[in-house]
Amino acid sequence: MAKPRAQLLQGNEAIALGALAAGCNFFAGYPITPASEITERMSREMPARGYPFIQMEDEIASIGCCIGGSLAGKKVMTATSGPGFSLMQENLGYACIAEVPLVVVNVMRGGPSTGLPTNVAQGDVQQARWGTHGDHPAIVLCPASVAQCYELTITAFNWAERFRTPVVLLSDEVVAHMREKVVLPEAHEVEVIDRRQPTVPPDWYVPYKTDGSLIPQLANLGEGYRYHVTGLVHDERGFPTRRPDEVEPFYNRLFGKISRHFADLERVRAVQLDDAEMVIIAYGCTARAAAAAVRIGRERGLKVGMLQLMSIWPFPRRPVEEALTGKRLALVPELNMGQISREVKRVNDGRTQVLRHGKMDGSMITPDEILGRLREAK
Amino acid sequence: MSGKAARPKPAQTGESKVSFFPAWCKRCGNCVAFCPRGALKRDQWGYPVLADPDRCTSCGLCEMLCPDFALSVGEAGPKPAGAGAPRGSRVAPTTSPERLAPEPNGGEEDGNG
Amino acid sequence: MPPVHRSVVYDWLRHDKKFPHVWCPGCGLGILLGSLLRALVESGLDKNQVVLVSGIGCSGRLPVYVDVGSVHTTHGRALTFATGIKLAKPELKVITVMGDGDATAIGGNHLIHAARRNLDITAIIVNNQTYGMTGGQYSPTTPLGAKATTAPYGHIEPSFDISALSATAGAAFVARSTVYHVTQLDQLLGQAIAKPGFGVVEVLSPCHTNFGRQNRLGSQVDMMKEFKRKGMRVERWRELPEGRRAESIPLGVLVDRDLPVFGQSYDRICDAASRRGEAGK
Amino acid sequence: MSEKQAQTLGRVETRLAGSGGQGLLLAGLVLAEAAGLYDGREVAMVQSYGPEARGGASKAEVIISDQAIDYPLCTRVDLFLALTQEAADAYCWDLKPNAWIIVDSDLVSHPPSSKAVRLPFTAAARDKLKKPMVANVVALGAIAEITGVISRRGLEKALLARVPAGTEALNKKALALGAKLARDAAGQAPAEGPATAHTEDM
User: Fold this and answer.
1) CATH superfamily of D2-185
2) Are residues A174 and A320 in the same domain?
3) Distance from CA of B109 to the nearest CA of C (A)
4) Cα–chain-centroid distance for residue B92?
5) Contact at 8 Å (CB) between B18 and B7?
6) Residue B5 within any structural domain of the chain
């Protein structure tokens, strides 16, 4: 019997498979609901390929281990949920400032603290942006289906490698545990980007000196290029500096390497937006309810469409502005007290009326709730 | 004390068993305090000098206890490029501490100038 | 006389990093740095084979002066980064340099698990009994009764014995020395570097600037003379009557045992997993 | 059954409920794979997650459709299987008025509707197959027979791909037994369910 190419996959499994497809060859993690399936799957897959897998003593150690692995040239990932993501924040900042490619999966559950370990929430959206201290760029992706778990994990790796920065994949409990039928692409159909390596001999090498791309070509540890990596603000040679004339250009480059590519970093999906009078802006599992609300609403004659945000940070300002323009109403349903609706209101700039629909009871927003909210607002 | 100030610094002689790199020296006094033979003394500024070269056995303890790599003992060791070069330049010119340190006898940092 | 001359350390110093270094005059970290470099040269390692990893604190600034791949990580996490580097490139010699607060307070969890896991990493723990860089607050190794900026009335917590802690947690090699006993330190570092598995070298070092000043212990010379007075080879120390042991500090190799090394165990798992994968095809 | 499959299937929401350890997660997986991988439908499945590994009410929900599935959870259940009274009580609040309701006749004394099909899954598995743990598979056989949402052939393929080697014969028998239970019962009370094409009951 020929094995069908389609598979029934869980969101968490799709993240593990997406990572492998993207070239992930190093995994360190710590068990936590609802992200453990990723770590479990990797514990089976990695040794079979001869790649390092390790379960560390906590999440701080997991991300530290991943940064070490990445500095030594591996494509690394760790996976966690809210409490573990909180623990990782310091080293996430380290990866930002030292420009270490890294993929962190955070499967959101109810918080704060231990919160609702087995229930869904979307409360880590702002933490993923501002969780580590100090100002820094952030790239955050948010899947709403099993297929997107796979695709966006690959995107996360590609962006982490290309921009030499940590990328957060913000999944949630529903998407993580949901199983869907998916047909995964063949390996040769997957575009994989690897980090650039130095093009000069070791003696000429200045680790943080960049060309027009603003992205340094950091050598892998142990390959003949001996340089210093630090979490202190550093000069082009990688050595700590406090000189304002070196510190300021450093921060400018750190932001610039992301901000000049904002357009590349937008991932959105529009559903029946062209003739819509009302737009629902949603992400993660809530986008599924929003899509159902569009389907049911259209059956009832409501001109409603949806914009799903697959990239949350940098906030996809331009597509959101376009989606808001000319609409009578915008609704932002989310499983928190308004973490993205705040952003939508910020970019709305008087275009239309933006309503939020927050839910904080550990369950998903239903299509009926969204439709009810639209009906109220009409 | 005043007599020692006039004493030529050993690094300048080209003969001494101990080379001093004053630009790196923080005058902590380890070398003087722990010399088993009491061969080193502090000058008026606190920098070490080989006061009694005859007592020095080139044991190297001062070098090992110097936290600042500010002195070097003995004839052994690699003789890289510039083998006839003055003492203190035994290491390759590209990695020599002198490249960064001021001239031992010239600059104001010498403290003896 | 060692076969390589002491002055080779200059070859291993990183000269595009400006000397003199950041540490206070007389700080033992400089002595340790020299000792470590001599041990590395003695081991016959190439600069490209060595990676130095440090945490935060005075000790965290050590790797930047060495012309090898060097990583200055976050406070307490040096061993986690080192674990990642070692797993990714097992052929590298990974050495961490941590302080007492770095390794046993904020990083205590990582230390005991690294020891238990027995990955081939050398951990140098510089014990100056205080948080020097932040101004002399009490650390897990501050002695009972000592003064600290956060213990103005005297320290009331018992202190950790770093070597005993590491040994109990499962390190394959544990040794202790001081920056005064520098020839011994050279040897112990060399042994730890050569030892497969997790090796801990506890290095007692004076912080006269903060710990010494607050506790009226004099200059670093006075504190090092105290090391000289108290330090005793562990073999001799073990022969002391129980009641007199507290007066001396046992120095030397405290533990040296052969234990399964993580990397080798993991390689076996990989072989088994890939065989099973092939069998399933 | 075969003509039903030729039709386009609208959104069918199925919920399999019981007690942890009754194998409902496996039943849900098999149902989803049968519909998704062998019958060519779109499927989405979620399961209840709680701290307890055994006991307590647990459920698996499978949405089956020929269109892309937007909302992955049940909102109005078309097909409800309950293997314990606790599960029947806990998870019956959102059944469609004309939903298929299938319960274990011995373990569910008060089904949520008098129209429920009551079949002795656990007793039959125990008495006829001497393996009470295949009650979940017996129930799947009955579901295929009663509803036609999934094909018996797809179900069998999906099941055999999932179960441990050596238990294939037992599981095939269990499927057949479920189908037979359903056929026998059909003579007494015809089961009615929702039309397979999607209707939005407003």
Assistant:
1) Pyruvate-ferredoxin oxidoreductase, PFOR, domain III (3.40.920.10)
2) no
3) 13
4) 18
5) no
6) no
- Is residue B47 in some structural domain? yes
Query: Distance, in angstroms, between A225 CA and closest chain C CA?
Result: 7
| Cα gap D162→D59, rounded to integer Å | 19
C-beta atoms of D42 and A173 within 8 A: no
As given in the structure block, the two tokens for residue C130 are 């205080």
pLDDT in tens, C21-69: 899 999 999 999 999 999 999 999 999 999 999 999 999 999 999 999 9
Contact C92 A222 (CB under 8 A): yes
ipTM of the shown complex: 0.88
Q: Which of C4, C9, C28 lies nearest to residue B67, judging by beta carbons? A: C28
Question: In this complex, is the C-beta atom of C96 within 8 Å of any C-beta atom belonging to chain A?
Answer: no
Whether residue C73 lies within 8 A of chain A, CB to CB, comes out as yes
Contact A366 D72 (CB under 8 A): no
DSSP A240: B
- A103: contact with C, CB 8 A cutoff: no
Chain C CB within 8 Å of residue B30 CB:
yes
Q: Give CA–CA dist C90/A16, Å, rounded.
A: 24
State residue D2's pLDDT score. 42
Q: What is the CATH number of the domain that holds B44?
A: 3.30.70.20
Distance to chain C for B22, nearest Cα, Å: 10
In chain C the domains, ranked by start, together with CATH numbers, are: 6-280 (3.40.50.970)
- How many structural domains does chain A have? 2
For residue A118, give the nearest of D36, D41, D50 by CB distance: D50
CA distance linking residue A216 with residue A195, whole number of Å:
10
| Percentage of chain A lying above the pLDDT 90 cut | 96
Q: Which of A159, A189, A219 is the last residue of a domain?
A: A189
Q: Which residues contact C9 (CB under 8 A, 6 or more apart)?
A: B69, C34, C37, C38, C41
Express each pLDDT in C64-83 by its tens digit. 999 999 999 999 999 999 99
User: What are the pLDDT digits (tens) for D87-145?
Assistant: 999 999 899 999 999 999 999 999 999 899 999 999 999 999 999 999 999 999 999 99
Best of B65, B75, B90, B109 to disrupt the C interface (most C CBs within 10 Å) is B65
Whether residue A43 is found in the same domain as residue A151: yes
How far is Cα D132 from Cα D109, in angstroms, rounded to an integer? 19
Report CB contact under 8 Å: A226, C53. no
